[in-house]
Amino acid sequence: MLSETLWEIAKAEVENRGSSGGEGDGLEIGEKSVFFIGSKNGGKTTIILRCLDRDEPPKPTLALEYTYGRRARGHNIPKDIAHFWELGGGTSLLDLISIPITSDTLRTFSIVLVLDLSKPNDLWPTMENLLQATKSHIDKMIMKLGKTNSKAVSEMRQKIWSNMQKDHPDRELVDPFLIPLVIIGSKYDIFQDFDSEKRKVMCKTLRFVAHYYGASLMFTSKSEALLLKIRGVINQLAFGIDKSKSICVDQNKPLFITAGLDSLSQIGSPPVPDNDIGKLHARSPMELWKKVYERVFPPKSMNTLKDTKDPARDPQYAEREVDEMRTQKDQELEQYKRSSSKSWKQIELDS
To answer: Region (Disordered) spans which residues (predicted)?
Structure first.
């Protein structure tokens, strides 16, 4: 229908693709989706282009962007298709998370959270806001899917928990996402020059968060070797290629920890003097790590939304007739606000 918006059409297309994947029958689905979220200008687009072997300069992501890749499995076998979604704007467009992730597409979805290591003061707020918003929406979709296909939800739970050995000591202490999650720390080339104590705080904190949410954790930069490692991980999410079992927990090297291979005993306690931990009133381990991290890297008080340019006022998207109508509507809105304000003042005087 002509009255449908672009997002309504895109959302319907995603739902159609997901609903064609069977009803929890255990079959491997040939189409998967990878959703990139994370820091603004953190390198999400660069990683996607590298994974798709596209030699082109990355462009700023306006809101929610989509592309796809194909991979042949064998002769006369249909190619696997991977759908790549990318959320722009850092934490300013959280409402758009609900567009690609639906109860129909949930079983074929993975999340990649890209965090800019060169901006440690922005890292925790970005990570917290994006993970909370994404997990909240996923939990709603899990409940919705469970009402019609409880077997599919059960299979998802089993698959995620299979990443951790049954006798792992932390099984009762973690709360993993029910879809695969990968946390990537970008711009390692800048991060590696940080003071060693600051690197220690960031590495241990990210290891705890990744372990708690059942995520893989890895650092990358412009280094070809690191990009190849990341590409392998993304290909595993997108096309089901064998998962890497390598691990590196040395804070003096780029971290690379596959989900389920870390432990709280290896991570250790938050890097703060023992006599100070008691002063940090925290209701949960996650809150304790947050308080410790923010003592070293206080979050900026600046509202993240202020840093986001209004796409409607971006010159590269200018359209004369649309802009004129927008200006007219803005003026009408301001006039309405003024008239409403006068009306309320008059009512207060009369009363």
So the answer is: 300-351
- The CATH class for the domain spanning 28-294 reads alpha beta
The torsion angle over the Cα atoms of residues 226, 232, 234 and 235, rounded to 10 degrees, is 150
Would you tell me the crossing angle of helices 224-239 and 44-51 to the nearest 10 degrees?
A: 70
Reading the block at residue 313, the tokens are 């006022």
Q: What is the DSSP letter of 243?
A: P
Counting residues of the chain whose pLDDT is more than 90, the rounded percentage is 48
Distance CA 290, CA 337 (A): 41
Spatial separation of the C-alpha atoms in residues 173 and 319, rounded to whole Å: 54
Mean pLDDT (whole number) for 67-93? 83
Residue 245's pLDDT band (boundaries 50, 70, 90)? confident
Q: Does the pLDDT of residue 121 top 90, yes or no?
A: yes
pLDDT of residue 8: 66
Strand order in the sheet with 31-38: 64-71, 80-87, 31-38, 109-116, 181-186, 216-219, 256-257, 247-248
Q: What's the rounded Cα separation, in Å, for the pair 200 and 44?
A: 24
How far is residue 144 from each of residues 25, 139, 262, measured CA to CA in Å?
A: 18, 9, 32
Counting Cα atoms < 13 Å in the Cβ hemisphere of 162 gives 8
Task: Please state the φ and ψ torsions of residue 32, each to the nearest 5 degrees.
Answer: -130, 160
Output the CA torsion 144→146→148→149 (10° steps).
140
